[in-house]
Specification:
4 copies of one chain form a homotetramer. By secondary structure, chain A is α/β, with parallel strands linked by helices. Chain A folds into 2 domains: 3-213 and 361-406, Rossmann fold, CATH 3.40.50; 217-358 and 415-427, Phosphofructokinase domain (Rossmann fold, 3-Layer(aba) Sandwich). Helix content of chain A is 31%, strand content 18%. Chain A is built from 11 helices and 18 strands. Chain A has helices spanning 87-101, 130-133, 153-162, 174-189, 216-235, 253-262, 283-294, 328-342, 365-383, 403-406, 418-427, and strands at residues 9-10, 16-17, 38-41, 45-47, 56-59, 65-66, 74-79, 106-109, 126-127, 167-172, 195-200, 240-246, 267-269, 296-302, 348-352, 386-387, 389-394, 397-402. Chain A has a 9-stranded mixed beta sheet, with helices on both faces. In chain A, strands 13-14-12-15 form a 4-stranded parallel beta sheet, with helices on both faces. In chain A, helix 3 (153-162) crosses helix 4 and helix 5 crosses helix 6. Chain A is elongated and about 75 Å long. At the A-D interface, strand 3, strand 4, helix 1, helix 5 and helix 6 of A face strand 3, strand 4, helix 1, helix 5 and helix 6 of D.
Chain lengths: 438, 438, 438, 438
């Protein structure tokens, strides 16, 4: 992937002094502004003798000169797609930073996702105030409402123009960000000066060049709770099998991290690594071995795993344009029961689908902090006229990721990654559960 | 129900001094023994002018004279049926009280429910020791294993005889207790001196004359977590509907208490109170009104509710002899979606089934204490030669409930109870959602 | 204690039909009204041959006829003393019941305890609305504010008159309730028709004839957390001693219940049972034995325990008129360290004082339900013109307890109670750690 | 700081094939070995035009050739200093990786810190087994025991020799690691082939070139709980002031992160940034302003902050050689009360010291994963004969940090860091609360 071809867009030259009153030189006893020329190595490993030229990402942070004059600026926030722990934290922190620190007094909340831009929508944008956002970080979900599905970029841009909005903050995942890029293209086509900045939100943690999406840590914590329950069930029954399905359409990050956190998982099944049920190297074979050795087993599967086993052509689409997945949890449950009862082996399978409970809780401390940081950097970027980007974190540094780069491909677990090696070592499962080439 | 006809069985006269060394008279600065003649009013309400004769239950507690000579006594514990938070606490407290306080040095753990009494069983009884039980109260599930289903009382009694067991503690619900009563009848038929004492365990809280089963409070706490999640989902989507299914085959106690704890439920559906979907007083009608008024709604349904709506003849049985229920959660989900989409109303229904997660967690503080008390009283009863009973709690006092009384009928939510009135007031739902008589 | 002499006060005859529309006869499929003549046995144990006449408490619940005409009634709520988990739940449920169920449209919130009745107070009463109370059950603390200390009953009654308040709900403990009784006497002296009803709030759970105060369960849960931490510290250090101080001025209920829930406590020290440090039966002696046997020990002490050891004359008073206690936690910490280091025994004492953290959290599910019930019954009582009472729960039934009865003495742990016996059995500590009479 | 001068020590050439059976070339579908020549940029920011030569750290990971022959290798683990969430996870993961993956069958647990090496110690080393470590990740604390204080490196090395130990894993912080370096020097002096590898453990998160110590995230989560409680207290009382003291001797990381997570803190006081109480820019002045504006305030202070205000010469030392700190929590409590009561302003200050409760809990999911990774990398390093190093994480990559580098200075919050800027923006407190130069 050629990073060099992805550049951060800006609306134009920044000529306005930032109202943040940060020091302009070091030695002032507190952090100062970040220059556009500071960049982050995308790849921080190096061979001592390597001479490859480094690829870099633009560093996020407050700029000394900004593009928008605060007193004349109007901002808007929209939340799209499914819930993630911390949505209200992000709404609140974007508001606080924009309103109190930069002095932008008009921040609108668009209702129910992109559909809230449609004049036909039942719910009009709401004007956010300090009172409204005061305690929302103690409420799960999003006070703005959310929805899946696209809206015509022209209609959205019409509304942005009509409402005089200069900055649009969008919280969403892959589909939402692609939509935001289309909006940006429409804005550019019309020659408007509107900055659009994304905050990466997807419980699947699958956004390219974004180390971690907000709420992901919390979702792992909750998924681990379900694993602990399934483990207790499995250990308490003869030939007990705990089976847990968690979110993860194309990426198995929740499965992988929850398996690592639990330490009790024996089989972690993810979309990235196909597996077979039958045969000498299939799941059934290894599961039977495990039951013989220890009398119980724990399996965790991502919702997008094993679709090939169900003959899913993935042709049907949901309103966001994502393929509809078949239910791999119920499928595995019945296939495993069928298999063992066919062999005269009595098992006790307990199936748990925590479903939405991993994403509709309050964020843990780590995610709360992360939400706040992402929000703050989104505001810094937007005020400096940067646009068509999403705030990322890479090697613990906050960065500006061009939306096209962030959506160029989904981030997935690489079989050759140390993450996956950790999962293999923690579970003891074989590196691949498919027919070996003869 | 004529309580007077149910009497606590005893093995015979108690002639052995209790080793507990409690004071025999009051004023000694600590609690003493309880006399068999102390009884508890089953009904504590009275009209001032009423002259009805009170019915009473035998009070639990340590007796000054006991039946079994500790040094010559062998006890066993068996856990049956599904998990409940606190099983290991009960195992531990029964062991500690029997071993340390009464000096009974042989306490066996029967493996995997009643099936563990069968000599063909793979797992032999284990000898419990202080080391084994030391930290088990920090582990969910049961270290003994559990299973559903009956075992021939003759086979069980054979094993009790062969192992020289004098006392059998059984943790289980309605079916398990009925089984225990059959075992007792076989013991009596053979003229054996074996005490059988039940500790009431069912997550549904449906045991007659037992105010609350252990683990129930914790299950409500966990069910409320799922309701909180469903509520966050519902509030965050236009016309969002949260639908949560929780355990409760014949009794809606988890639904009722979780609805009261959450304060956000609009419709609580329980097996005791039939409801209709359609018509002027059906669920759909009231749900639509709610959505129009507030744009979101939260429904909680017990697994045993609404079976009549699905044409469930309840003919099929599971291994414990309980009728197999159809999945009311999936049924309601599809019927609600169908109904509203048929009327051209777009809704966002999020369905959550916390399933086993409400019962395979550690007990909360309240349940931990309750587990310990039940266990202690079970040991007092058994050592005094009392048998064919289950330990209950009634009006905050621990009692001896004859098994026949405890299993004479299932405890259910009475529509005329103040509990149900509280639920109606908390949810605002109509007292009945069925066709009114014309 | 002669219960018969305590009667529930009423403002007068109830002539108004209740707006609750409950059935007036049984068989209607839902709960109906409660007659004033239904009473609760205060003592539910009986000897079969006893002929003592039973003492009873009035049962709480909705009355068919009420005293106040809802459309013309104004109510007020005040929260006094320290926090308890669930204060906002009670405020919300009282409001919901009064406003929605009875149709009383004016419910005032008095600010910052009794001091908010003083016209000189900075904060005026606030008018509560459905919007204000909507989500307050998700916020710990009290939205009304609270404070310790009395206010002149005359000033309070002046304000009640001036504001046209007909019903005053007061959330508080012993001191607050005594204050409420004084207010009632002033009201009566003036011949006013104002009902005053208390909701029992004290984290110490020390109100007479009230089985449990709201928030107590949650406080025990939190106290157990601190015990778990102290236990981990103690077990992880050679001769580790965990020492935890929890609330409990005159009553050791939090100590007792938390010790039962933890199962790891070795010494539970409460105000009701004096103990010595030195001598053959003192704490040091038993602690040394425990350390020798197991290398670690866990102690929990109530703040009001052991005051005699510190030579506390308890002469100084705080603003609520309670004696100021010396810090028994720091005292024990230094005395234990001093003792063992004096004997050349190296110990690792870790002292934890969870202080306010046990009372400023959200209520658990059980307490949430309890808060709601207490509130609902408080409203029923007040609307029926009952006054000078506090809502209690006794043997699981809600009752009307005359304030004079509730404050006649503090509820404490009786050394002869089964509760204390449970603690002794769970901890293994001696029944008394003081010099035995020679 | 000149990183180049710090090199990872190795025992010698690695000539043994690793038993891990990882692929030796990429494209094998799973992660392979890491070459010693792969290094990590220590500084990943770059100016586009910069030509400074990069400094790097050695990357951690499994090596294809290892130094120790597993069948002949004996390892030992020791835990030193205070508790951190996850100690038992680390012990378990080191054991699992060493025993199961590398096939080292002897892993000893040294008891109670470095003192356990002393032959006079009461507790002999224990042989770890799969059964012993099976469930220890569900227990807080350390099963090995821990203690503060040094032990003569000669005595420790004698024991290492006598027990035939080839690898020593040490879990500890700054003092412990310095001790480990001394042990290494003694080992080297004697020409022994013993690898010593540290796992960074300190709740203060103050180890140089280690991004985060294990357990830190969990400690922040717990500290935030105390802040939430203090905030509820403060908001519920007129002029309520919540004051919380948390750990942090030389570094304010817990304060900083907990303040960011809570969003409710108004003043975060850390050791790195001195502050004054009085004067126009002192804490009292700003606190009074805050109370006037909002009627409540929340302060969090690190235990090591404000020592200068108490005239602490820091001359006294504890057994680990750290200076004894005075109690800044009690100091601030009394000074604030004194100040405001001196000005006739009534305040309600609630002081909470969560003390050990933030470190003696189980690790959260994130920390569990982190513990496992650190452990695994420690084993890889040791088996490859690397020594005198601590496992670090830097920019999300695991690294080998020479102990001298890790202990060259304490990691602290830099006033000019973006972390501190975030805290300033979240709290709204002034950048410095000291007398401004005139």
């Amino acid at each position: 992937m050629d990073l060099a071809k992805y550049q951060v867009e800006t609306l134009g030259e920044c000529s306005i002094e930032s109202p943040l009153k940060l020091p302009v030189s070091s030695g002032a006893g507190m952090a100062g502004y970040v220059s556009d020329s500071v960049r982050i190595h995308a790849r921080i490993e190096c061979q001592e003798d390597s001479s490859e030229s480094p690829v870099t990402l633009e560093k996020a942070g407050p700029r000394a000169k900004i593009y928008f004059r605060p007193g004349y600026t109007r901002a808007a926030i929209v939340t799209c797609g499914g819930l993630s722990p911390g949505l209200n934290n992000v709404i609140r922190s974007i508001f606080m930073q924009t309103y109190h620190r930069y002095g932008v007094k008009t921040v609108l909340g668009i209702r129910n996702g992109y559909s809230g831009f449609n004049p036909k929508s039942k719910h009009k944008p709401m004007l956010l105030t300090p009172d409204i956002v005061d305690r929302i970080h103690t409420m799960p979900g999003t006070i703005l409402g959310t929805s899946r599905g696209a809206e015509d970029p022209k209609i959205i841009t019409d509304t942005l123009e009509r409402e005089g909005i200069n900055i649009l903050f969008t919280l969403g995942g892959d589909g939402t960000l692609k939509g935001l890029h289309s909006i940006w293209q429409e804005i550019k086509r019309r020659g408007l000066k509107i900055a659009v900045v994304g905050v990466p939100k997807t419980i699947d943690n699958d956004i390219n060049f974004v180390y971690k999406t907000f709420g992901f840590d919390t979702a792992v914590e909750e998924a681990k709770r379900a694993l602990d329950c399934a483990h207790a069930e499995a250990r308490s029954h003869p030939n007990g099998i705990g089976l847990v399905k968690v979110m993860g359409r194309d990426s198995g990050f929740i499965v992988g991290y929850a398996a690592l956190a639990s330490r009790d998982v024996n089989f972690a099944l993810i979309p990235e690594i196909p597996f077979e049920l039958k045969g000498k190297n299939g799941l059934f074979h290894h599961l039977e071995k495990r039951l013989k050795a220890r009398n119980h087993a724990l399996i965790v599967v991502a919702e997008g795993a094993g679709q090939h086993l169900m003959g899913n052509a993935l042709a049907e689409k949901d309103p966001s344009g994502n393929p509809r997945y078949l239910d791999v949890g119920e499928f595995l449950k019945s296939k495993i029961q069928e298999h063992f009862s066919g062999k005269g082996i009595q098992t006790n399978l307990k199936y748990i689908d925590p479903s939405y409970t991993i994403r509709s809780v309050l964020p843990n401390a780590n995610d709360s902090i992360y939400c706040d940081n992402l929000s703050r950097y989104a505001v810094h970027a937007a005020m400096a006229g940067k646009t068509d980007l999403v705030i990322g974190q890479w090697h613990n540094v906050f960065t500006h990721v061009p939306i096209e780069l962030a959506t160029a491909q989904r981030k997935t677990i690489q079989p050759e990654s140390t993450l996956w090696l950790s999962v293999l070592e923690a579970t003891g499962q074989p590196a691949g559960m498919h027919h070996r080439p003869t």
